[in-house]
Design a protein that fits this description.
- The structure is a single chain.
- The chain contains 13 helices and no strands.
- Helix 2 runs antiparallel to helix 3 and helix 6 crosses helix 7.
């Protein structure tokens, strides 16, 4: 690697870390928002486990089926915080000030993503602890469990870039709710709460090819929980799809977000 390239990489990392620290500083000023983001998926888990009764069509313990699915759902939901922060910065002129500084293009977005990834790690820790308290366990060892957590964070990384791009398209905080509604069908049109075998054939096929379903099926298999491979191609290759889907989403939305950011206010 040439000295010039090394310098560019070093500046990119430094600028991104500066923006990450800026986003982390917001947590100290908005502790309620952070707490709500951590508690909301826990409430969904408890509701579906005890009130609704998750795991329809599943052979085995419903809790062990539901918890990995809820971990995947947690990685896809909660984007409204990211989207609101981006749109607020856009409307307050903060982004314009950053763009006027000698800063690596995209460092603001990278910092936003990195900070939210750290929050996602905290959310996974909370959800894993609550699931363990409910009786959920992993059965295939530590290495497989860590691989499952890696797939969950990979999905989150891709979803955050999608959220950042959609936020810049929305442009205003009041439009975030309308855009966020688009995320809900992705979450519920999946195998998070029920097995595709319990659904009509056409719907089950759609559900199995949902990116979230791929991640949920893959982590169930890695954790040794019910609801892993079910005999279809998508289920048999869930771990492959759990990598390919996030990589494809990132390949689409990351450059789109960086390009749109570079052309703001031009």
């Amino acid at each position: 690697m040439s000295t010039a390239t090394a310098d560019r990489v070093g500046w990119a990392l430094t600028d991104s870390w500066t923006m990450t620290r800026r986003e982390l500083a917001r947590w100290a000023r908005q502790p309620v928002q952070v707490a709500v983001g951590l508690v909301f998926p826990v409430m969904l888990l408890l509701m579906f486990n005890y009130l609704v009764g998750g795991g329809s069509g599943v052979d085995g313990d419903n809790t062990e089926f539901l918890v990995p699915g809820m971990l995947a759902l947690t990685m896809a939901f909660g984007l409204e915080g990211t989207m609101l922060a981006v749109t607020q910065d856009l409307n307050k002129g903060v982004i314009d000030r950053f763009r006027s500084m000698p800063m690596v293009p995209g460092a603001v977005l990278a910092g936003r993503n990195a900070a939210d990834m750290l929050q996602s790690v905290a959310a996974l820790a909370v959800m894993t602890g609550v699931g363990y308290a409910l009786g959920w366990r992993w059965h295939n060892g530590t290495a497989a469990a860590l691989a499952a957590l890696g797939l969950l964070l990979l999905l989150r990384f891709a979803m955050l870039w999608a959220g950042i791009q959609l936020a810049m398209v929305a442009g205003r905080p009041e439009m975030v709710q309308a855009v966020q509604i688009l995320v809900w069908p992705v979450g519920f049109l999946s195998n998070v709460f029920a097995s595709p075998e319990s659904m009509p054939g056409w719907l089950g096929a759609v559900v199995e090819w949902n990116p979230m379903s791929a991640t949920a099926t893959a982590v169930r298999g890695l954790f040794g929980n019910p609801g892993g491979s079910t005999g279809t191609w998508a289920a048999e290759h869930a771990e492959l799809l759990a990598v390919l889907w996030p990589v494809a989403l990132t390949a689409v939305f990351l450059p789109l977000a960086v390009r749109r950011f570079a052309h703001l206010s031009r």
